[in-house]
Amino acid sequence: MTASAGFASEAPTSKEQDKPAPSGLPAGMAGFVSAQAEPVKKGHLTGPDMDVVDRLAQIKNGEAEAEKSKLAADFDNTRFMELLAMIYGIREIPTQYKAQLESFKLDDNKPLPQTYNDTLYALCDGVSVEITKDSVLADENAGPMTPELAYKLAAAAATNPAMKALTLSGNDEDRAMLFWAAKHFDLDVTDESIPEIGEDKIGALAEKFHAFEQTAGLSESKVAKYLNNQPEAAVEPATKTAPVKPEKREPFINPYQFMPG
Question: Looking at residue 58, what is its pLDDT?
Fold first, then answer.
């Protein structure tokens, strides 16, 4: 994979090619990366469930058929859900995130993770995704980050209890979508990774994300203040605006000061 979008350390934009890429992250990926990742706790899974791994190997080799499990009864791909739980060091995927993760499935062309330190390769809405215990990244070569994909990547990041403050990765448009998606899951985002977007562009991006919010039936919009050229538009993601000039006022003259006493 050469490019991705999601939650990870910031990748250079087209205007920032001179900046070095963050170390330890796949090039060309955009997404979420935990700025304060915590190791898997001893009380959680500290390695693969070998029964699950053996079963997955049998399914991959055509020696057994995939079956639904209680862990992922609502999902089309049980294997992805089981391995995601292993990567995150949790026993099961929290119920509130299941619907958002429904579109994820394993990338059969990539190796399966064997421990929680490995990478989980998946596909979501036809886009390649790489998930580790402290990052969720999607392929930037697939095109601009859609609100739908950003929302699902945010759900995948929110599923991991070890995820702390997140750094957004990708170009300005990618990070705008990721920022608004993160807000729907109450995820903290580092200030330095929030994009600065010109007033001539932020409105169109906000309209795009708002259309998704309406289609998805999300009751609380995270972009309402950016719509219709409202004054609140100059907030995170920060818009580039000219400094406000002080209002000119005419000097006040007391008409009584020139009257004879």
Answer: 63
